[in-house]
Amino acid sequence: MSGLLAWQDDPEYVAQIDDLLHTDAVQKLNNYTQHHSMTRLEHSLNVSYRSYLIGKKLHLNTRALARAGLLHDLFYYDWRKTKFNRGTHAYIHPRVALRNAEKITELTPMEKDIIVKHMWGATIGLPRYKETWVVSLVDDYCAMDEYMGHLANDVEDKLKVNH
C-alpha cells in the first residue's frame, strides 16, 4: 500500500529533480508530517515520481511533472492547525507553494499551473494542461493511499493489543 517507490533507482527521474532535491527549501519538508504516515517530502516525492511515470507512458512533459510534482506542497506550516482569513488551506497552500518554488528555481507556465491548480476539485481553478490533471489526480491518489496506510496500521496495532 503506502510507501515510497524506488525513485532513487531511476537515474532519468533523479536527473530531473536532483537540483531541487538538494535545496534547503525542499529538504525542510522532511520536518512536516503529511497524511499521518509520511513526511511532506516523502509525499511530494511520491506525487512527483508517480506523475513522472504516468507522464512517460502518456508521452507528456515528464520534466514538468517531476519538478512541479516535487514542489506542489512546498509550504511550511501544519495545515491541520493553521487557519487563514483569506481562504481555505486548499486555496492558500498552492499559492504559498508557488511563491516558495519561485524563490528556488525558474518555473515554466506549465509548472506554475501544476503547482497552483493541483487541488482542483477542492478549488475551482481548472487545470490548463494534461500534466496539471495528472498531478492533481496523483496527489489525490497518494493522499488516500497514505492515509489508508495509516488507518491500516492503526487497525493492525489494535488487533495485536486485543489478542
Description:
By secondary structure, this protein is mostly helical. The chain has a single domain, classed as Hypothetical protein af1432 (Orthogonal Bundle). It has seven helices and two strands, in the order ααββααααα. A two-stranded antiparallel ribbon has the order 1-2. The longest helix has 33 residues, at 130-162. The two termini are 24 Å apart.
Provide the descriptors you would attach to this structure in a database record.
single chain; 163 residues; mainly alpha; Hypothetical protein af1432; two-stranded antiparallel sheet; 7 helices; globular
Structural category is mainly alpha
The CATH architecture assignment turns out to be Orthogonal Bundle
Domain module tally? 1
The beta-strand count equals 2
Biggest sheet layout: 2 strands, antiparallel
Shape: globular
Strand sequence of the main sheet, in spatial order?
A: 1-2
Give start-end ranges of low-pLDDT stretches: none
Discrete helix count: 7
List the helices and strands and how they pair.
Elements (H helix, E strand, L loop, with lengths): L10 H11 L2 H4 L5 E2 L3 E2 H19 L3 H10 L17 H16 L4 H8 L13 H33 L1
